[in-house]
Structures are given as structure tokens and as C-alpha cells.
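Meet today's protein:

…
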Amino acid sequence: MAASYKKLFKLLIDREIEGKELSELAHISTATLAKMKKDGATVSSDVLVKICTALGCTMDDIVEIVPDNKRVVED
């Protein structure tokens, strides 16, 4: 399983918030946001909480868990 943050970046577009502004509001680095643009990137739950607090949203609003296509589940 991997995390996708596409929902976060769509939310930022919808609210007309730039990455630099979010990094200041959430007290996270712009490097962390850049890392999050890559699907499957791992960030701490502390970062996610800071983002949610700054945007007044829940983790469901910014993160989606997607299946790892490389893994095959066998019975």
C-alpha cells in the first residue's frame, strides 16, 4: 500500500493556496511538500496533522491509500 497526496494538491488548487503559503501556515518545509508530490512518498503523521490543522480538514481530505500493484496477494 502506498499513500497518494493528490487530494491535498487538488484542495490547495481549489482554495487557491500555494505550496509556500501552506508550508508557512503548517510550519513544514517546502522540501516536504515537494516530496509529497511523488506518489508513495512517506511523511510522518505529525506532518499530516500540521497540514490538516492549517487547512481545517481531515486526513481523508488530503491522503488516499492506494494499492501497491507490485504486490500479489495469494490465498
The chain is about 45% helix and 10% strand. The two ends are 18 Å apart (CA to CA). The helical segments are 6-14, 19-26, 30-36, 45-55. The CA atoms of residues 1 and 41 lie 11 Å apart.
